[in-house]
DNA sequence: CTAACCTCCTGTTCGC
DNA sequence: TGCGAACAGGAGGTTA
């Protein structure tokens, strides 16, 4: 599932090749989560000026306006230079002067949305409520602590909500909480400065390491060059219910929180 | 306002 | 072995 590391890995593998590419045609397959929001002809003739990331969104800056692209939970982007025909799950082709940017997304939770600018209603609805970027300087221990103090919800769900800090999805929330020694059920407002400090460091460590390893490929994620990620081999708890903790040997537990599975080690993570 | 639940979708896994 | 049911989950939307 694309979380911050997978989106960032995609961005890095794509930024150089698509910058300066001129869109020559737009091919749309089955509908995605939201409609494009403009006539495809608006895009044709425009150049891709830059590729940025905000949370789990990729922002493709155009000469005029920008495209917001989300990978949902099964999406991946490829940049292909041949004219291979789209497969059943290839739902967007942006044919450019340098190659074809192709969105592959079997479950179609992803989206590609045009916005006239970053401040307009369309963009603000999607980006406006997003929290801090965890790998940036704005994400500080103090800000994390303050945000946690403001919520009585379980810390795992505060992380997943994305209003305090973005990009931490189900895999990396469980992994960060393991590194921090905090059980996912602990209420945000019960986390003090010491644990907030550990969690802050753990989030940065986990996400940076995952980016380094090309993300996690649980099923079929790959970067724009088709290369898989390897972080899943370093997971301490995610997907390891019943298996012995790498640190203490006790069985990793799985629980449900907000319709999502959470994994933790009852020995290493304190309530 | 928050928090719990629902919804979209399809490939994979599970139980009988 | 086959088949339907359950499951996985990002995140906006709805409801209480």
Automatic annotation (TrEMBL):
Residues 236-270 form the FPG-type domain. Keywords: DNA damage, DNA repair, DNA-binding, Glycosidase, Hydrolase, Lyase, Metal-binding, Multifunctional enzyme, Zinc, Zinc-finger. The keyword DNA-binding applies. InterPro entries: DNA_glyclase_Znf_dom_DNA_BS, FPG_cat, FPG_Glyclase, FPG_N, H2TH_FPG, Ribosomal_uS13-like_H2TH, Znf_DNA_glyclase/AP_lyase, Znf_FPG/IleRS. Its cofactor is Zn(2+). Its EC number is 3.2.2.23, 4.2.99.18. DNA binds at residues 89, 107. Residues 2-110 form the Formamidopyrimidine-DNA glycosylase catalytic domain. It catalyses: Hydrolysis of DNA containing ring-opened 7-methylguanine residues, releasing 2,6-diamino-4-hydroxy-5-(N-methyl)formamidopyrimidine; 2'-deoxyribonucleotide-(2'-deoxyribose 5'-phosphate)-2'-deoxyribonucleotide-DNA = a 3'-end 2'-deoxyribonucleotide-(2,3-dehydro-2,3-deoxyribose 5'-phosphate)-DNA + a 5'-end 5'-phospho-2'-deoxyribonucleoside-DNA + H(+). GO terms for biological process: base-excision repair. The active site is at 2 (schiff-base intermediate with dna), 3 (proton donor), 56 (proton donor), 260 (proton donor). Binds 1 zinc ion per subunit. GO terms for molecular function: 8-oxo-7,8-dihydroguanine DNA N-glycosylase activity; class I DNA-(apurinic or apyrimidinic site) endonuclease activity; damaged DNA binding; zinc ion binding. It comes from the Bacteria. Signal peptide: none annotated. Belongs to the FPG family. Involved in base excision repair of DNA damaged by oxidation or by mutagenic agents. Acts as DNA glycosylase that recognizes and removes damaged bases. Has a preference for oxidized purines, such as 7,8-dihydro-8-oxoguanine (8-oxoG). Has AP (apurinic/apyrimidinic) lyase activity and introduces nicks in the DNA strand. Cleaves the DNA backbone by beta-delta elimination to generate a single-strand break at the site of the removed base with both 3'- and 5'-phosphates. Monomer. HAMAP family: Fapy_DNA_glycosyl. This is Formamidopyrimidine-DNA glycosylase. It comes from Acidovorax delafieldii 2AN. The gene is mutM.
